[in-house]
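stage 2 :: seqdesign
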């Protein structure tokens, strides 16, 4: 399954690295955004399978962005996956309360981890087949 994704992160170096790594692994990076406004606009315009959202955007909450993306009508009805350099346990309560599909550590980000997160959610019935 080929994935079309949008990466949202305020760190330009991470955006470049994640894009390069994921594209080498067969993922189509349809867009990148460094803030919530850019992410929301692109999510409306692009047909996406996944939106990767850093939980700590400069001056903005990735959790709030995930909520907005989940409630916004987006083409493709993308899964929202939170990413961070922080350990999942550090934000366990916020992650549990968030409508995001999954959480991935940035160090574990790969095409395979994205596919597992999306496929796992489909099996649970929260994403369309």
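stage 2 :: out
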């Amino acid at each position: 399954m080929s994935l079309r994704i949008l990466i949202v992160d305020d760190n330009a170096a991470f955006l470049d690295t994640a894009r390069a790594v994921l594209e080498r692994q067969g993922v189509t990076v349809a867009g990148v955004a460094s803030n919530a406004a850019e992410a929301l606009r692109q999510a409306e315009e692009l047909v996406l399978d996944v939106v990767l959202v850093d939980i700590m955007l400069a001056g903005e909450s990735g959790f709030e962005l995930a909520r907005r993306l989940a409630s916004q009508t987006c083409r493709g009805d993308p899964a929202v996956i939170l990413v961070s350099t922080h350990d999942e346990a550090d934000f366990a309560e916020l992650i549990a309360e968030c409508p995001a599909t999954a959480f991935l550590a940035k160090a574990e980000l790969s095409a395979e981890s994205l596919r597992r997160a999306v496929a796992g959610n489909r099996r649970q019935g929260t994403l369309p087949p």
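stage 3 :: structure notes
- Residues 4-123 form a domain with the Rossmann fold fold (CATH 3.40.50.2300).
- The chain has a mean pLDDT of 87.
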